[in-house]
Design goal:
The chain has 13 helices and twelve strands. It has 334 residues and is an alpha/beta fold. The chain folds into two domains: 166 residues, Bordetella uptake gene, domain 1 (D-Maltodextrin-Binding Protein, domain 2), CATH 3.40.190; 124 residues, Periplasmic binding protein-like II (D-Maltodextrin-Binding Protein, domain 2). The strands form two sheets. It has a six-stranded mixed beta sheet with strand order 2-1-3-11-4-12, sandwiched between helices. Strands 5, 6, 7, 8, 9 and 10 form a six-stranded mixed beta sheet that branches. It is globular, with a radius of gyration of 24 Å.
């Protein structure tokens, strides 16, 4: 009886060990089949804007190269901080991506000092476009040129709408005010759609934003300046002048670069799967169908520009340095 009891206990221990190993095996990700489920996209801005359209265009092609579908959820707030914090708390299994805009969100990173860390918590593995910052006015308004705007700004504070205060176009306008002596009152509207509405209805004197986000309204607005050293988008920007061309002043170039990010932990622990993710996006970007999808959502293929992880990271650090340099201006202390 004693031997029988010992044998039963031994079998029970072995069974328990086998069950534990089985549970570990079942719960472990099957990297050979990555991705093993649909991809989740965290968007730190509101639904319905340019980023939403870009995501739909890209994922309509990317799903054919990665072999799974994509589902977006939108988490606006605190100039992107809400979405980034949500993203950084998601499992590091490579099935959650962030679709962001490097310049405004790295400015947010400097100014708001959120709890996440770049590049410790995530990597921008690719960026997909280049979108210049512009300033526009409504066609039936009293201001019709950048010269008009500056002249008015020397008489009174001119109200200018922006989607969020930590934004390249915001900094561009502030530096323009410094260079010309004009007074610009920047009003953040918490998103591109409400900022554009404020400009179209005359609630504000002008709107500063990225070029692509306002192309649907070209019949109702005038682009009065482009914050670049050279306007490479003349045919779609109404030949908007640069600050140097219009006013004889030089300020840094400003624009945006929409990009994809994934967990740093996923990249470091799963190099083969990370490479599969990156190469699938590169293949999608080179697919001729992407230009067709880009046009379908009302975006111009002229904005398409691929940057890999190294180039995207370099761009992010350049923005961080710029934001630090002009931190006092962006915080309204200068």
């Amino acid at each position: 009886m004693g031997k029988q009891g010992a044998m039963i206990k031994k079998i029970a221990r072995i069974t328990c060990l086998l069950m534990t190993l089985l549970l570990v095996f079942i719960s472990a990700p099957c990297w050979a089949d990555y991705p093993s489920k649909n991809m989740s996209i965290i968007v730190p801005t509101g639904e319905g804007g340019a980023m939403d359209r870009v995501i739909r265009a890209v994922t309509n092609v990317w799903r054919d190269h990665l072999g799974v579908n994509f589902q977006s959820t939108f988490h606006p707030g605190a100039s992107g901080e809400v979405g980034y914090m949500f993203f950084c708390k998601r499992p590091a299994d490579g099935h959650t991506l962030l679709a962001g805009n490097i310049a405004p969100e790295m400015m947010m990173y400097v100014l708001q000092e959120p709890d996440f860390k770049f590049p410790d918590d995530f990597v921008y593995f690719a960026s997909m476009d280049s979108d210049p910052a512009v300033l526009w006015v409504r066609k039936n308004g009293p201001i019709q040129s950048i010269q008009d705007l500056v002249a008015e700004g020397k008489k009174r504070p001119v109200n200018i709408a922006t989607s969020r205060f930590p934004h390249p176009s915001t900094l561009a306008v502030l530096l323009l005010g410094e260079a010309t002596g004009a007074q610009f009152n920047i009003i953040p509207y918490g998103g591109g759609n409400p900022a554009r509405t404020a400009g179209l209805t005359g609630e504000v004197d002008a709107v500063t934003t990225f070029l692509s986000s306002s192309l649907d309204f070209t019949s109702e607005i005038n682009f009065i300046v482009m914050f670049q050293n050279e306007n490479k988008w003349k045919d779609i920007s109404q030949h908007a002048p640069t600050p140097q061309e219009a006013l004889g002043v030089t300020i840094p170039e400003f624009g945006g670069n929409r990009a994809w990010a994934v967990s740093r932990e996923f990249k470091d622990k799963n190099p083969a799967e990370y490479e599969k993710l990156v190469s699938s996006f590169k293949s999608a970007f080179e697919d001729p169908k992407l230009q067709e999808e880009w046009k379908k959502v009302g975006m111009d293929p002229q904005f398409l520009e691929f940057r890999d992880e190294e180039e995207s990271t370099k761009l992010a650090f350049e923005i961080i340095e710029t934001a630090k340099k002009y931190q006092e201006i962006l915080k309204g202390k200068k």
